[in-house]
């Protein structure tokens, strides 16, 4: 028994020090007026939480974040599945395609943000260059408040769809080949095979990708921070940007941690909803 | 089916390859503008600046942090190296990082009790940091209290700005601020005298009209001008906070009455923000700012005039522009312009021989104002501003003089960062037509008032 605990001890030490303790400490800080440089941090009870509920910046950033997170998670989940099915087929240069599609994932968000900002630049961007070359009007991708979040979402999908694609490929490789063979003998077409065999059997992977993508994109920071600064106006100002500003620019760590806890509760809520919707279909027995 | 998948994958790869290998794009027309040949914006190569520079090898090591990552950082390192050459017992590690990262790092270092020995901030940040007790009082750096720096030689309003609750914090290095930079070649091409720039708001609009051209070569003063088809802009609305403050001061206003009330719903605020908004949507001499890169456009010759900081000097030189510079024009009733200062600080924990070495270094840097002015930043020392010549440092001379005559600092407030980040996005929304002038200023005012009520 002791031996078992010794095996998990190294992990537990790091987990308790760098995850559990900061989380508990953040909850503790959220009940205080915690100016980062101040020597005293007075206890304020639920004051920060009351302020959060009537803070219109919180609601505005939460709305922007929800829009971005749902759109990006949906696009990534669907697009990565389509590409994964395509590169799972025995086509020529299959490994090359897999490599090319996965490659952008290795970029840091800073690099991706700078590259994407130039690509979608109204004046000098390559996207508008091709649009005008095709005789289409140039688009203010990052300058129009109505399309700035879809643009950020598009850039994020380009950057990150390789990772869910990889998970899907692993899932696809786990589907027994005899199911397809039997269906083909029964006269099923390619589309029918995908719809009736691949998609249902991929549900655990789809569920996993949808949940992890949604959680990841709720925490969006780098893309709007680098590409738009939260603008135009505050059209792409997100919760984590607001949290960062509050804690590190305004020195209000107590309220910053309250925003963090508020976001964590929102993520928890939507994750539970997803479990409720997908949960029943997340295990497959062959 | 396999063939379909292969074609899909190939098409996707082809898209990526095209995007990667395409030629450098010329400027496409913005929505509603026709496709026209526009001079390609030549991005000047950034001068490489070491992130960490080690000056000298002396045993007594000072650590000096700042946010000077442009060519001004290289000038700063030159000055520090000259100091260590004269003082071989001291070595200095200069660490330069972008301002946003710098603030994060400085905060954590102050909280953990391990701050750098010297660091750079701006004068308006003094209350924010001094109120937390992390800045060392620096009265003894000045000759009045036996220090090396002659306070009588510091520009009056700059010296006054160092005071917070009866104490003096830091030593000002410069007075930088807002001015008007213009492209002389574009002036000549428009038939304007390249040695005369606009002094008033009316002149500014009139010249901007002459300098704004559509694809057919008509300027904005012409009856045939097509505002949907502009290839050269007369001007642009740059850094909103600074442009707005410079203008609202001229109309006799400010963002606060300094008694705890926000005044962004005032007539002066409407006049200031409205004047710049009209340049975009009424006079059609400035582009909608979002997505418009004013620096690159100025470098590429598709923007004729730009209100920008004194720090733009080296960028213009690197771009090979035939530039001119003037004081910020008088748009309102009285001359005024936003200014600020880089101020060097030491932490409260610094003492002993390190403190003495820091004093010597700060005094040396302050004395070297003429070297610092080569980066475009006019010195905060009166004698150095007088010694600055038009022949050697024209921008520092012209702008420095205007800063001395009618320059003005922003209100130093304990929550200044919060205030700025509350009203600046509202200006962004006004200039990008996301909100009306009235709505934007009303929202800005109520947001700033909330902060002032909470943070007194």
Structure description:
The complex is a heterodimer of chains A (286) and B (456). Chain A is mainly α and 286 residues long. Chain A has a single domain, classed as Orthogonal Bundle (MetI-like fold), CATH 1.10.3720. Chain A has 14 helices and no strands. In chain A, helix 3 crosses helix 13 (239-249) and helix 8 (162-173) runs antiparallel to helix 11 (203-218). Chain A starts with a helix and ends in an 8-residue tail after the last helix. The mean pLDDT of chain A is 90. With 456 residues, chain B is an alpha+beta fold. Chain B folds into two domains: 52-175 and 341-409, Periplasmic binding protein-like II (D-Maltodextrin-Binding Protein, domain 2); 178-338 and 415-454, Periplasmic binding protein-like II (D-Maltodextrin-Binding Protein, domain 2), CATH 3.40.190. Chain B is built from 17 helices and 15 strands. In chain B, a hairpin with a 2-residue loop joins strand 5 and strand 6. In chain B, helix 8 crosses helix 9 (267-281). Chain B is globular.
Q: Which SSEs are present, and which pair or pack?
A:
The complex is a heterodimer of chains A (286) and B (456).
Chain A: H1 2-29, H2 47-53, H3 56-88, H4 94-102, H5 109-119, H6 126-133, H7 148-160, H8 162-173, H9 177-185, H10 190-201, H11 203-218, H12 222-227, H13 239-249, H14 253-278
Chain B: H1 2-21, E1 52-55, E2 60-66, H2 71-86, E3 90-96, H3 99-111, E4 118-122, H4 126-130, H5 156-160, E5 163-164, E6 167-168, E7 171-172, E8 176-183, H6 184-189, H7 201-211, E9 213-214, E10 230-232, H8 240-250, H9 267-281, H10 294-300, E11 305-309, H11 313-318, E12 323-327, E13 337-340, E14 342-345, H12 352-367, H13 369-372, H14 382-387, H15 394-406, E15 407-409, H16 416-431, H17 437-454
Helix pairs in contact in B: 8-9, 16-17
């Amino acid at each position: 028994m002791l031996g078992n605990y010794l095996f998990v001890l190294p992990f537990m030490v790091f987990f308790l020090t760098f995850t559990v303790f900061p989380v508990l400490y953040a909850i503790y800080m959220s009940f205080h007026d915690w100016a980062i440089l101040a020597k005293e941090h007075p206890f304020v009870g639920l004051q920060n939480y009351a302020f959060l509920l009537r803070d219109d910046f919180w609601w505005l950033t939460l709305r922007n974040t929800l829009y971005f997170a749902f759109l990006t998670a949906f696009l990534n989940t669907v697009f990565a599945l389509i590409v994964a099915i395509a590169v799972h087929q025995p086509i020529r240069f299959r490994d090359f395609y897999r490599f090319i599609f996965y490659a952008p994932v290795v970029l840091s968000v800073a690099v991706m943000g700078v590259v994407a900002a130039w690509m979608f630049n109204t004046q000098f961007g390559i996207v508008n260059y091709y649009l005008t070359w095709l005789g289409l009007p140039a688009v203010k991708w990052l300058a129009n408040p109505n399309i700035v979040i879809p643009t950020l979402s598009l850039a994020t999908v380009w950057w990150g769809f390789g990772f869910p694609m990889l998970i899907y490929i692993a899932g696809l490789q786990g589907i027994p080949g005899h199911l397809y063979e039997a269906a083909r003998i029964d006269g099923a077409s390619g589309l029918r095979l995908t719809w009736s065999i691949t998609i249902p059997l991929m549900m655990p992977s789809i569920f996993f990708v949808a949940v992890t993508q949604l959680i990841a994109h709720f925490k969006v920071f780098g893309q709007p921070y680098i590409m738009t600064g939260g603008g135009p106006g505050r059209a792409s100002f997100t919760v984590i940007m607001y949290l960062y500003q509050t804690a590190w620019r305004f020195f209000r760590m107590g309220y910053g941690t309250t925003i963090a806890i508020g976001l964590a509760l929102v993520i928890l809520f939507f994750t539970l909803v997803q479990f409720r919707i997908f949960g029943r279909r997340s295990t497959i027995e062959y | 089916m396999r063939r379909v998948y292969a074609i899909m994958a190939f098409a996707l790869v082809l898209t990526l390859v095209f995007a990667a290998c395409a030629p450098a794009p010329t400027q496409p027309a913005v929505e509603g503008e026709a496709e026209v040949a526009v001079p390609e914006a030549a991005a000047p190569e950034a001068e490489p600046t070491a992130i960490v520079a080690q000056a000298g090898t002396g045993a007594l090591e000072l650590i000096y942090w700042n946010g000077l990552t442009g060519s001004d950082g290289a000038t700063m390192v030159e000055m520090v190296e000259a100091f260590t050459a004269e003082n071989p017992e001291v070595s200095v590690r200069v660490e330069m990082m972008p301002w946003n990262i710098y603030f994060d790092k400085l905060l954590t270092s102050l909280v953990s009790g391990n701050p750098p020995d010297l660091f750079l901030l701006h004068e308006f940040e003094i209350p924010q940091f001094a109120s937390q007790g992390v800045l060392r009082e620096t009265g003894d750096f000045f000759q009045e209290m036996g220090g090396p720096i002659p306070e009588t030689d510091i520009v009056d309003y700059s010296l006054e700005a160092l005071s917070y609750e009866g104490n003096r914090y830091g030593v000002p290095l410069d007075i930088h601020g807002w001015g008007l930079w213009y492209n002389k070649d574009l002036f000549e091409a428009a038939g304007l005298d390249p040695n005369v720039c606009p002094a008033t708001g009316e002149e500014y609009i009139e010249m901007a009209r002459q300098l704004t051209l559509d694809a057919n070569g008509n300027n904005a003063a012409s009856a045939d001008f097509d505002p949907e088809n502009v290839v050269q802009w007369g001007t642009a609305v740059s850094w909103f906070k600074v442009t707005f403050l410079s203008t609202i001061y001229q109309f006799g206003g400010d963002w606060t009455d300094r008694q705890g009330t926000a005044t962004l719903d005032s007539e002066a605020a409407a006049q200031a923000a409205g004047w710049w908004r009209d340049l975009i949507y009424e006079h059609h001499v400035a582009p909608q700012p979002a997505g418009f890169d004013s620096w690159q456009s100025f470098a590429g010759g598709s923007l004729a005039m730009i209100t920008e900081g004194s720090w733009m000097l080296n960028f213009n030189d690197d771009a090979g522009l035939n530039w001119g510079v003037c004081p910020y024009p008088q748009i309102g009733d009285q001359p005024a312009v936003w200014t600020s200062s880089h101020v060097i600080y030491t932490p409260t924990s610094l003492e002993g021989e390190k403190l003495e070495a820091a004093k010597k270094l700060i005094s040396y840097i302050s004395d070297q104002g003429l070297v610092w002015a080569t980066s475009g930043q006019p010195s905060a020392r009166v004698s150095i501003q007088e010694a600055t010549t038009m022949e050697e440092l024209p921008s520092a001379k012209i702008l420095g003089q205007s800063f001395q005559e009618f320059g003005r600092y922003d209100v130093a407030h304990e929550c200044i960062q919060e205030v700025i980040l509350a009203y600046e996005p509202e200006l962004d929304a006004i200039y990008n037509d996301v909100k009306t002038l009235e709505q934007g200023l009303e929202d800005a005012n109520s947001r700033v008032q909330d902060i002032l009520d909470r943070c007194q």
